[in-house]
Each structure stands twice: as C-alpha cells, then as structure tokens.
Amino acid sequence: MIDLQLPTANSSHIAEVLAAGLETTVQDYGGRRGYLQLGIPRSGPMDRNSFRLGNQLLSNPESAAGLEIQFIGPTLRFFRETVIAITGADNNPQINQKPIPLWSTTLVQPGDILSFEHAKYGARTYIHFAGGLDVPVVMGSRSTFLRGELGGLEGRKLAAVDRLSTCPHFLPIKDLLGRSLPKRAAPKFSNYWEVEVLIGPHDDWLTAEDIDQFLTVDWQVSAKSDRVGYRLEGPSFQFSTNAHKKAPDNGSHPSNKIDYGCATGAILFCGQTPTILMADSPSLTGYMTPFTVIEASLSKVGQARPGDKLTFKLVDLNTAIQKRQVAAVGGN
C-alpha cells in the first residue's frame, strides 16, 4: 500500500523511492575514465545511445546523471515540479497510472507518482531529470559500479526510501516542455539484434569454419549475463592449430591465453562460450578475443535480454569509425 500523503522533504530533494525495481542505478554518459589500470571499469549506461538522447531532450549537460532501470522499474514520488524524459526500452511508464510517452519531455508535479510495467522488447530504460541527478562525483563520474560498491548512491542500487536530488537546470521549465524525438530517430527494439564486429586480434586461433560459423549462427543471450559481460549460447568451436599448439604458459584449453589488456566490446571465448565484455568489465583477460563489437553496436547489445538472439556482421575499421561518428552526432 502506497501512502498518498506527501511527506516533508529537504528542499534539495526532487523525489523519493517508493519501490526500487529489480536493479536501478545512477549512471552518467561518460562513465569513469582513466582508472582501468587500477581495475576500475568505466561503467556508465549499457545503452549509451538512449541515455544520451534523454539528456539532449532536457538540454542537460552530456555528463548529467540519470537512472538506469533493468527489466523492472522503480516507483518514484515527486516532491517538486520538474521535467523528466524516459528513454530506452518501452515498459509503459505512467504518471498517476496514466501512460506517458517515451522519447519526450513530461511535466511532473508535487505528489505525482511515476511507475512502470514490463517491456516486451529491450532490457533497460532510462529516467532523466532536468539538470541531472546530484550524487557525489567519485573519480570523475557519478556512475555506479555495483561490484566495487563505488559511485552513484553509496555504490549500490536504489532502495525504498532513498531520496533523489538534482543539479540546477538552466532553462525554465516552460522551455523544456513539448519536446520529443522524431519517431524515425528513436532506436528500434526487438528480440533479434544484428551486431557489427571487427575481426581480431586473435582470429588466427579459430579455423575458417569457426569464423564462418560465428558470423552465420543466431546466438542466444544466456540468463548468466549482466553489466560485466553477456554470455552467448550456441555451437562449439574446433580452434585452429595456433590455439592447439601454443606455448604451454598460455594455459591448457585452446581458448586460454597469457593475460593481456582488452577493450569493452571484446568477445572473449571463455572455453566454448563467447562472452561480450560490457560496461562493468575488467581490463585484463586470459581468454582469446577473435572479434570485437564496434562502439556503435554496443548499445544494441546492452538492450538484449536473456533469450534474445544476436547475429554478427563483420565490418572493417573505416566503417566502425564512420558509425561511431554518426552516433556521436545523434544518428542510429
């Protein structure tokens, strides 16, 4: 039962959490840069494209923090008038049980209650607030790294009775209303995702048949997937002579390799399980990486949910760079 009486709030508080949802965390677009050598990942939103568009709708700084919802959204009660924008997976956001549109700005009033249902497609939804959320900046970012208990709200996911504060917004509320993203510009969601990859650096540890198989099979997202990595379920690999005849110090399994630095988006072969490194991934691995997801496709992976299918399309470096540039200026 939700208490409808509006409690007294600190003047800096914009809303309180009535129900936390499954995993709701504070994230910001850029994440935490420059600390990989200490084992601290970048973090930030899993779908950076949807997150960035939400801040643009509100004329927030690119660095403004918002909430990332995984599957089941929170319930929030607002203390003050403000403007919000909801982006990402469509899990039927509602104000006072009346649906509000995604990819648009929405006015909320004191006492209003924001709630969510379940999305049919996509894994993550974002709540953006005019001015962005005000939580401590840790190592240059407000993003939450759950496994390290770092950033966001005390390094954890939201809990009931948490209260949220926002940074000042510089445009009057009236100037933020009536904004929406053209339908053609909104990302498309599905349970089948085509993900573009670069080949390498360890493609020579696979046979030609292995490579062809990887690029032609529909891979299923495993339930054992999270913000660290997405495990994929599918057929097995043979591995090439290079993998079978490597120096002993690389490890016993053909997929094992002496530890080396790896990128977000690297597709590690952990034994027979391809695993895509995501926002909270480590910077070192001891598994081979025959493919790497291009930056422009990482948002699609971040929206895939267990049971969804991924298919991979090989592109060259120039294409990857062009797609990154297009995404940087607001394209899909």
Provide structural commentary.
With 332 residues, the chain is an alpha+beta fold. The protein folds into two domains: 13-185, no CATH class; 192-328, Cyclophilin. The protein is 14% helix and 29% strand. The chain is built from six helices and 20 strands. The strands form four sheets. It has a seven-stranded mixed barrel with strand order 12-19-16-17-14-13-20. The protein has a six-stranded antiparallel sheet with strand order 7-6-9-4-1-11, with no helix packed on it. The radius of gyration is 21 Å and the shape is elongated. The two termini are 41 Å apart.
Roughly what fraction of the amino acids lie in strands? 25-35%
Strand order of the largest sheet: 12-19-16-17-14-13-20
What radius of gyration results from the CA coordinates? 21 Å
Query: What best-fitting shape do the alpha-carbon axes yield?
Result: elongated
H/I helix tally: 6
What's the arrangement of secondary structure elements?
Blueprint: E1 13-19, E2 23-28, H1 48-57, E3 65-70, E4 75-78, E5 82-88, E6 94-95, E7 98-99, E8 105-108, E9 113-115, E10 124-129, E11 163-165, H2 173-176, E12 192-199, H3 208-216, E13 219-221, E14 229-233, H4 241-244, E15 256-261, E16 266-270, E17 273-277, E18 284-287, E19 291-293, H5 295-303, E20 309-314, H6 317-328
Parallel strand pairs: 12-20
Antiparallel strand pairs: 1-4, 1-11, 2-3, 3-10, 4-9, 5-8, 5-10, 6-7, 6-9, 12-19, 13-14, 13-20, 14-17, 15-18, 16-17, 16-19
